[in-house]
Amino acid sequence: MSRLPTLIRAGLRSNFGLSVLRHRIFKEKKDRWLVPIFGFAALAVLPSIYGLILLIQNIYLALKPLGQERALLTLGIMAGQLFILLFGLYYVISAFYFSRDLEFLIPLPLKPFEVMASKFAVIMINEYLTVMVIVLPVLIGYGVLARGGLSYWTNGLLVYLFLPVIPLAVVSILVVALMRVVNISRKKDALILAGSVLLISVGIGFQFLLGRSSRDGLSGQAMTSFFTSPDSLLNRVGSRFPPSIWATKAIAGGFSASGLLNLALFIGTSLLLFAAILIISEKLFYRGLVGLGEVSGRRRTLSRAQMAQRVSSGLHPVRAIFAREWRIMNRTPIFLLNGTLTVVIVPLVFILMATTGGGRGDAGSILKVMTSAQPLFVILASAGFMVVCGSLNGTSSSAFSREGAQFWISRVIPVAPRDQVAAKFLHSYLVSILGTVAASVVAVAMLHINAAHLAAAAGLSLVAGVLLTALGMIIDLARPLLDWTNPQKAIKQNLNVLFAMCADIGILTALFFAIRFMIRAGLSNGAILAALYVVLVALSGLSYAALVKFAGKRYREIEV
Fold first, then answer.
1. Which pLDDT does position 412 carry in this prediction?
2. In this predicted model, what pLDDT tens digit does every residue of 10-60 receive, in sequence order?
3. pLDDT tens for residues 372-420?
4. Using one digit for the tens of pLDDT, what is the confidence trace for 339-350?
5. pLDDT by residue (tens digit) across 248-257?
């Protein structure tokens, strides 16, 4: 096992590329401009963190008089675990089967479980960073408000360290089994994509089945028991994912018998599932890798001239580049899963969370009451949800990085940069539109928003989508990641995606405070919406013009 720490260190260096970034900043002095960008990104998310803290405080104060404040912990933990369960699929498939370091690791005298354990550890560290913004504010906020002692913080730390294990272990077992089946077929990419969608669908369906038993309402006696038991609401909320109940009781219970018992149950289940991964890896992991990189014998290598001719032969330039962008996205399962399918999965997760608990008093009913209060709130909240579903993904901010080493094609083909950018923009904006449509369906089905409010919200989302799409493409064009070693790095481990999301959050936060100022100034709902439309249309036009102008200069400077 002494080789395992070395493998983990090597995997972390390859995953984050910190040594390369440090060399480029302090030795080559090429990326020093990233230092202030990091500072700006941190400042951009501070208002959002402040808003999240206020939300946590309000929920805690609302639940405390009922004695149900522990449900806040359950909600935060369950949200983090479900996020890992659904989106961790991308990390697992990419790290286990599409990482280029596998061709160096397999010939080494390493056992399959050592390779898989090292990669699982790297994925876990990634997930710590991913769910940090979801789980940590809840843990810290609850601890401060409830004045948690040493036992609370100790158990909270242990729960957070083991938090990703159960969902990642479940996903890993399913993925290893899937790839063992996929390896017997020549249509591997199609089967990987279909299998991934199936796994996601099974995961979401499983959560719905877990919650069906809690949709029977509450009788009078059950209602009395509901308000007299401090764990009734957390049991109801966490019924879809029992490990979240164990984690909550472990943290809230501290060093009591109940707290330690639930902590042992949570950690013990995590270790058992991790052991199951190691056992399965010895039998199936390498079998799923053999032949994965093979290609059909019918394929032939094309010269640069032939490739350039094939890309644009007989088609309008914008249409040809759009078709090429479409193929790059759809033929790489990691790109498609992280880009296009994400805008569909997020609304499904919202439905899952909104129906948590079932029956009366569930989250869906609460949302309906909230959205029936003020028309302006209904429109803005719906528009914000549509923007999150459609634009806050890595599609636009990895538009150039996804080409990788093939970016030379974009430089040699006889198509002006403005046309190439227009095609890439249309592709990314189409994904944004798909997210808006999916979110609209959810808004109508779950919240029963009327047509006028839905049209106003969708219009705001579509206009904002132009701004955020153009901004993401500008950020990626300024520093495209073209030398990635596996597809995951181009979209999930690309700093441009992080910068774009921080910039998007900063813009949305600025709009929030602007709307708040107009409300306090006494402007009517119509005036506020009109002003918001004018500002977004103006910013969208300026951002797209800046993108086109920047592309004309930047395309000549990028070296592959």
1. 81
2. 776 666 555 555 655 666 656 565 566 566 656 666 666 776 777 788 888
3. 557 888 888 889 888 988 887 788 888 888 888 888 888 888 888 898 9
4. 777 777 777 766
5. 888 988 888 8
Strands (E), 100-243: none
How far apart, in whole angstroms, are the C-alpha atoms of residue 383 and residue 468? 14
Token pair for residue 4?
């395992």
User: Residue 432 has which token pair?
Assistant: 């944004």
CA–CA gap between residue 149 and residue 152 (Å, rounded): 5
Domain ranges across the chain: 37-213+228-293, 308-560
Write out the E strands in 144-201.
Answer: none
Task: Please tell me whether residue 255 adopts helix, strand or coil conformation.
Answer: coil
Task: Count Cβ atoms below 10 Å from residue 108 Cβ, excluding itself.
Answer: 10
Task: Look up tokens 């249409």; give the residue.
Answer: 319
- Which tokens sit at 411? 């430089």
Do 191 and 115 contact (CB within 8 A), yes or no?
A: no
Q: How far is CA 110 from CA 12, 102, 122, 433, in A?
A: 18, 11, 17, 47
Indicate the residue type of 541: G
Are 172 and 119 a contacting pair, CB within 8 Å?
no
Give the pair of three-digit tokens for residue 545. Answer: 């013009």
